[in-house]
Amino acid sequence: MAAMDPSSNPLRINDNAQPSSSSSSSARSALPPPVYQANEDDSIISLHLPERLLVLPPAAFALGAFVGLSRGGSRARLRFLAENAHRPPTTVQGWYFYTKTRNYRILFGACRQGAKDALKLGAATALYVLAEEGVRKMRLGIRNMVNVEKAAAAARDSGKGKGRESVVEAVLEHEMRLAKASKADELVWLDGAAAGSLLASVVGLLNKFPTALFVRTLAFGAILGTVEGGLRIAQEKIRSLKEGNTEHVEEPAKDGAGVAE
Q1: What is the pLDDT along the chain (261 residues), one digit of tens a residue?
Q2: Residues 7-38: b if buried by 16+ CB within 10 A, e if exposed
Q3: What angle separates helix 92-158 from helix 164-182, to the nearest 10 degrees?
Q4: Is 161 left (phi over 0), alpha (psi -120 to 50) or beta?
Q5: Torsion angles phi and psi, residue 33, rounded to 5
Q6: Phi, psi of 43 (to 5 degrees)
């Protein structure tokens, strides 16, 4: 039997043949789409904003807008009356345009003054909150640093443990106590007084107040900051009392449910 030439075999597959574009595209379309898997090492950007920064500036903005609208409308009305006192209208058409122009002037003056006062008061309140938060962070940082040094020195001198581990444990316990105590901070009024004085001094320097007015502005800012800090302390006290009463009420209920079971 004669040997068959492999080149003449119609069923022979060419090794050098390239796949067609249609087959490759269909193969790619058959593949599932890539799935993104979250990596645990991905960095997370977080921003902590004080609750007061979301409440006080908008409230101050609204108050400034209300006061500015009232003041601006009254000033615009008086200015228009003073400018046109020597030329009152004498006809019905003249009185119509006179009243129309006066109303437009009052509306424009009220809106302009309201926007100015709202922006000024809102920005000043936001700066006050940021200054108070900065003073608080600085005060707590200094206090924690001093207390941690004291705790480390006490742990080294007491001889409760051996080596560096005992010092680290003592420092960690002290930081946990400070974290619990910071929730009921009694020196919040001091932060408010410092922030109010700082903001009042900046306002006085920018407006170049005389000495007497500058001192009054400084005292007024300190008093307002102290009052705001006192209100925050009272709010925290009321909140802690409510939480304590809630826990006290829930515990007997759980005990009664366990007995009934």
Answers
A1: 445 555 555 445 455 555 555 555 554 555 555 554 555 555 666 677 778 888 889 999 999 999 999 999 999 999 999 999 888 899 999 999 999 999 999 999 999 999 999 999 999 999 999 998 888 888 888 877 777 777 667 666 665 545 555 555 666 666 666 555 555 567 788 888 899 999 999 989 988 899 999 999 999 999 999 998 888 888 888 888 877 766 555 555 555 555 444
A2: eeeeeeeeeeeeeeeeeeeeeeeeeeeeeeee
A3: 150
A4: beta
A5: -65, 150
A6: -75, 140
Cβ neighbours of residue 230 under 8 Å, at least 6 residues apart? Answer: 189, 192
| 3-state SS assignment for residue 99 | helix
SS (H, E, C) 22-63: HHHHHHHHHCCCCCCCCCCCCCCCCCCCCHHHHHHHHHHHHH
* Rounded-to-integer distance, Cα 160 and Cα 132, Å: 40
The pTM assigned to this predicted structure is 0.64
Show the tokens assigned to 13. 């597959």
Q: How far apart are CA 162 and CA 164, in angstroms?
A: 7
Q: How many whole angstroms separate alpha carbon 8 and alpha carbon 1?
A: 16
As a 3-state breakdown, the chain gives helix, strand, coil percent values, each rounded to 5, of 75, 0, 25
- Tell me if 124 sits within 8 A of 203, measured CB to CB: yes
Sign of the CA dihedral with 94 first, then 97, 100, and 104 last: negative
End-to-end CA, the chain: 95
Residue 192 CB coordination number (10 Å): 28
